[in-house]
Amino acid sequence: MSAEDPTGTPDGAPAPPHGGHVIHARRARLLAREAFASAGLPAGAAEQVADALVTTSLRGVDTHGLRLLPQYLTELATGVARAQASPAVVRDRGAGLLLDADGSLGVLAGLSAARLAAERAAQFGVAAVGVRNSNHFGAASVYTRQLARQGLVGIALTSAASRVAPYGGIEPLFGTNPISVAAGGGDGEFALDMATSQVCFGEVKQRRAEGRGLDTGWATDRQGRPTPDPEEAYALSPLGGYKGQGLAMAVTLLGAVLTGTAPDWRLAQVGAGGAGRSRGIGHLVLALDPAAFAGTEEFGTGLADLLTTVRTSAAAADGPVLAPGDPQRAHERDREVRGIPLDTRTAAVLSELAERLGVPGPVPGSAPSAASAPSTASEEVAA
């Protein structure tokens, strides 16, 4: 992949795909699973990565869903990600562990970390699993929501190659460095997944291609000055200025420094790393068992009260006040029925893959739904 971040719209939602094709979830899972299996992943691993990408697309986060499939296949083909990797725990202090991903696909590393965190949280009430020697791990909410489905509070973050300049600075030092927190399930789910940058670099690239200007505060030029011209954009701006810079640094501290991996500015940009060597990305996944704190029942009651209070609060405009995860669930309900809309490039790639593998592929479809789910911006994504 060539771009380092997802594409988003001004309100943080992904730009709606407009390729005129859709693919339904069952067909997408089959296609992705067969593609990963043909790339050398064991059957179980191929199914896990396929499910992560399809679920993310169903939830409307197109930048981190099926659009990542060709990127991950390229990583496997070049040896940046190892198809037969053997992640292993290299430090174990009970509730704190360090997992060496052995250069695996980041999705598999993240899922392994989440499983370990759940097991240890059941024993200790809390668990933190650091990951090193990994690659891009897609949407951070994949791991936090897995933990939430087990009755835990999940927290996940990842380092990323630099695209974001510090507040008042010029040079990009930090990645989009996302943070995800999830708890509960169904309509009672809290699922935050946010970047610590003002916007993502993929949006800058999209605006360049479309000949549209940037919104105020999105990016700076080579002199560190805010610019509305996507052609002059050199670095992204942190979310909320100095406070966003602090959050980005905190993610680097926890995802890279704590796990003993290279900081953002020393990570190779996508496509620029050496073949046969992982990008060396670091993640951190935490699990908290409510039973060790207020108690499972009291926590559930409190979570329901929190969500209900926010959702039923007075709205300043048409439409309800939303809690984190609400737009994604709306997308999922819609796309389970109507299919996943695909941009032109992704539709072409998936169609070619389907023909080569002898499985059904995308089909011409109706326009995408009007709903938009906020993009996670969980590191980078193919343009």
Please tell me about this protein's structure.
The structure is a single chain. The model is unreliable at 1-16, 367-372 and 379-383 (pLDDT under 50). The chain is of the alpha+beta class and 383 residues long. It is 36% helix and 14% strand. β3 (96-100), α4 and β4 form a beta-alpha-beta unit. The longest helix is centred in the first third of the chain and has 19 residues, at 106-124. The N and C termini lie close together (7 Å). It contains 10 helices and 12 strands.
How would you summarize the topology of this molecule?
Layout lengths: L20 E3 L1 H14 L4 H16 L10 H10 L9 E5 L3 E5 L5 H19 L1 E9 L6 H8 L4 E6 L20 E5 L6 E5 L6 H10 L8 E2 L14 E2 L5 H16 L23 E8 L7 H16 L14 H13 L1 E3 L1 H14 L5 E2 L19
Parallel strand pairs: 3-4
Antiparallel strand pairs: 1-11, 1-12, 2-3, 4-10, 5-6, 5-10, 6-7, 8-9
Helix pairs in contact: 1-2, 1-10, 4-5
Distance between the ends: 7 Å
Report helical residue fraction: 25-40%
Strand fraction equals: 5-15%
Say how many strands there are. Answer: 12
The class by helix and strand makeup works out as: alpha+beta
SSE order: EHHHEEHEHEEEHEEHEHHEHE
Please state how the strands of the largest beta sheet are arranged side by side.
2-3-4-10-5-6-7
Counting H and I runs of at least 4 residues, what is the number of helices? 10
Average pLDDT reading: 90
Shape by Cα distribution = globular
Q: The biggest beta sheet, please?
A: 7 strands, mixed
What Rg is obtained from the alpha carbons, in whole angstroms? Answer: 20 Å
Low-confidence stretches: 1-16, 367-372, 379-383
